[in-house]
């Protein structure tokens, strides 16, 4: 029979039953979805998390199923409630079971962080590895944080100034190095424009640098900045871009270092290198000058001696004799020139004799006039009388000339050069003064240093150093007093000679009495001149051009003395002397050379105690040296 409208209406009890059944099926499906992979992975007894989760859904499914079953029984019995009388306790017990499972689940949750968002289908070993990974991640985060803290401490305490600047040129970070360098603390510097330590004049340049950094460029430059107290700073500055996480330039990192000391050290190194190059050039010049002087002295030796021979032969021809005297005087001047060349060689000493400083000053005046020029007036004030000093005349003249040259350079627009000589106690004093530009104290303190010069590109810095050496060699002192804008005075003090040395006369020593002299000289004309001088003086001469030849020509003969050049082809003079001393240990040896004895001593080519004749020699020089060598005691030979 047909149903009524009331019968076709679903009552609330039916809806309750249907809802519980649907929820039961849903929970059962979830439980099945969890358990099936666990069972397949054979983790039913090891995966407590998955099993407990399944039990929760299982208890919920059973609970809803129980409610539906009890509601059906109640409706069949004609009840109006959802639960049939007598079924209250099973429902309460099951709810209590569900609650206990939930409590256990939440205790597992503390150990299984994956419940917060990961997969629950993992074994305990995998869960342990996940925990280890979490621990490593946390450790990495801690290490990164510690690194950032350490880096911040390094930046804060480094000596360099490290500054953060935004793209508008305002300071955003300021370390302690910046505080020390610029004098501003962080509180007063942050937020300020960079011009606080660069000055307004450099602000535009700094913004141009920031513009370059904005485009990703790293900039390095040197610049002068200003301390808070106004003192200048020489800085080396590096600017680099600061980028955000996506690589966009958001600011500028500025690192500044004070380099005044470094620049001074670099300048000193360059100066040392320049001095080393000067030394090398001077050594080369010295070798060249020594070689030229040696060769020129050989030539002068021929000129001097043959001129004297001619003078001796022209006693009855005054006009010819006078001409020859001019030649001899010219040779003497040439000899002085070679001594000047030898001042560039190592160990080139002079020939000190007793010299009247008053006369030397008067002689110098005439030579200085063309040297200093017409726009400089020379005023000479010689001493009150003779002032005898023991010095090399040529070196003394060169000292005066060098001081006059220095005065000339200090008076480019003209002025007055004053030469004075007087006596101060037991010292003869020479004063050379000018009305030039003067020198500041730091320059005056260094004027006698080798290679120090204020004439960049012009002077070698050796003139006053050489003058200092010549004065010192003569046993004297030299000092300078100068005032900028007023002038300069050089004071040279030389010891006065209390007992004058009697000058050597031209009287020749006694005759040679037929003694035999071996003369070894590779220059033929000079060898003939020496042979002639010795022969005229009564000596017998055996001549040879080289050492090996000398050994052959001597043979077993006995000779009374050896005169030999020092530097010769095939065999040196000292080597020849050694070989002859093997035959005759007491044989007197006289060395001669165009090099100075000082230079030969300094280079180790000659014993300083050995008798020596410097070319060009005169008959008097040669005969006197031979006579002294022959009359020395054997132990002194």
How helix-rich are the residues, as a percent range? 40-55%
CATH superfamily of the largest domain: Histidine kinase-like ATPase, C-terminal domain
Please give the domain count. Answer: 5
Oligomeric description of these chains: single chain
Helix/strand structural class: alpha/beta
Helix count from the secondary structure assignment: 20
Report the uncertain regions. Answer: 1-10, 112-121, 499-503
Domain PAS: 147-192
EC number: 2.7.13.3
Catalytic activity: ATP + protein L-histidine = ADP + protein N-phospho-L-histidine
InterPro entries: CheY-like_superfamily, HATPase_C_sf, HATPase_dom, His_kinase_dom, HisK_dim/P_dom, HisK_dim/P_sf, PAS, PAS-assoc_C
Notes on the protein architecture:
The protein is an alpha/beta fold and 637 residues long. It folds into five domains: 5-122, no CATH class; 158-258, PAS domain (Beta-Lactamase); 273-342, Helix Hairpins (Orthogonal Bundle); 353-495, Histidine kinase-like ATPase, C-terminal domain (Heat Shock Protein 90, 2-Layer Sandwich); 516-636, Rossmann fold (3-Layer(aba) Sandwich), CATH 3.40.50.2300. 51% of the residues lie in helices and 17% in strands. It contains 20 helices and 17 strands. The protein has helices spanning 5-8, 12-40, 48-76, 88-111, 124-157, 176-182, 186-189, 195-198, 203-214, 260-313, 318-342, 357-372, 393-409, 441-444, 463-473, 524-536, 547-554, 573-583, 597-602, 619-630; strands at 161-166, 171-174, 219-226, 232-243, 249-258, 353-356, 376-381, 388-391, 415-424, 427-434, 477-483, 487-495, 516-520, 540-544, 561-565, 589-593, 612-614. A five-stranded antiparallel β-sheet has the order 2-1-5-4-3. Strands 7-9-10-12-11 form a five-stranded mixed β-sheet, covered by helices on one side. Helix 2 (12-40) packs antiparallel against helix 3 (48-76), helix 10 runs antiparallel to helix 11 (318-342) and helix 12 packs across helix 13 (393-409). It is elongated and about 185 Å long.
